[in-house]
Amino acid sequence: MRPFTYQKAATAADGLSAIAAGGAGTRFLAGGTTLYDLMKLNVEVPSHVVDINSLSELEAFDTSGSNELVFGALARMSNVAADPRLIRDYPALSESLWRAASQQLRNMASLGGNLLQRTRCAYYRGGEPFACNKRKPGSGCAAQEGINRGHALLGGSESCIAVYPGDFAVALVAFDAKVDVLGPGGRRTIELEHLHREPGSTPHLETMLEPGELILRIRVPMTPLGRASTYHKIRDRESYAFALASAAVALRMDGDSVRDVRIAIGGLGTRRWRSRAAEQALRGRALTPETARAAGDAALQGAKASRDNAFRIELGARTVADALMIASRRT
Amino acid sequence: MVTNCEGSDGIVCHYAHPSRREVIAGAASASMVISMSSGTTAQSQGSGSGGGALLIPVNLTVNGTRHTLTLDSRSSLLDVLRERIGLTGAKKGCDHGQCGACTVHVEGRRVASCLTLAAQADGRQVTTIEGLASADGELHPMQQAFVDYDALQCGYCTPGQIMAAVACVNEGHATSPEQIREYMSGNLCRCGAYIGIVAAIQDAAPKMRRA
Questions:
Q1: Which of B131, B158, B188 is the last residue before a domain boundary?
Q2: The complex's ipTM?
Q3: Total structural domains within chain B
């Protein structure tokens, strides 16, 4: 690991000025479960690290309000997953947290850091001699002709087919979440749906955050769709693995017919993936295994398989369909 | 192999990396590498950009004993526990938070000490497997249950399993075999002693609640 200078930020403003002073090689440290891991692989090589864990005002979260759920960026995944109100009224959000990582990592990892979690692509993490446009722009993408069983089917490009590995962002995008950020230019709010970029020809640019911007909190508007929701995650093993395919769905029924629905899929795309085509396919229809499956097919429309991952198109469609039936039993 | 680099064999990847070689140019032995990564190599104090430092003061209270240390900023909590404080109970398995062998408690919460910068534990209470038994040597109910239920074979993962299991019970996540399996999934046992581990936790949970 390369040497780095370490500094604790006492306030958010402190942290921002430290980032501004440190320049391009400076990183914020929250839980560290992604950053320190990648530093050990020499994939992240910061010259200066600003520890923001003392910003206790960002640790709080509040699910008791009447308009929105508010999560501080430093709230830990395990604490939020266990929130009784979230478990009751927004099970998809709680499930997307406790079905990720292990309890050790969830005790460490922050929500803000989780949104910015980096891909698990082995060619990205593996370092030299593997080509990776995300790690080293212009070097190529070893995954295109490599072992790509776990790679993206949606949103990829010739430059990159690395999967966005997060779960929480998938559930959040189903609920129209927003993130408040603070940066050199002041405060602003970004729709979670627009936080991550498609890789295109610049896969090293992963989010819409400007250099030095810090996520302060995540806000989710209250919705009656929360209760009949689920985060359904299919993995190579039952627990403690990244998704081969996942779906966050939320339903509001009107008798037998679907009054409103949200469908987002994870593990399959280069970023979180909201499928409005799938939602449209269900709205106003009766929910049956057949219509649920049709919505699953709609969600995977446009999926582009590589050599090893074609099976995940069918898996993804079935995951969406199963998630819809699970959620419907919670209405 | 890509999978070797990414997976549980992270140490190989870590030490074989070209930039690593630059750092350790001239140092042939693996022990040199380990001592550097644990922060014991003398290094000039740098003020660095933005006012940070390469060598940092860290106060840790480990199993009730206070330690005042000056550490390389890169040091993991695991390396400091093992190499500086001499508590070798917590084990280095993958060194990437994937196996659970390094599990310790920080302020009563279980964490992967290999992915925790020692600096992040500054001013905190750390508990390791060495701090679990009572002063007179009586084993913690979870330690005794692991013995009684033969919940190990080689024993390498056991300190991490036991620290995770104690936290699992304290969190209220040990109410059924299914829940135990879910909340213990971050601790891998390559000998496959899982049946004994689940049985040990089921046995120890009510004893811990009574204690």
A1: B131
A2: 0.96
A3: 2
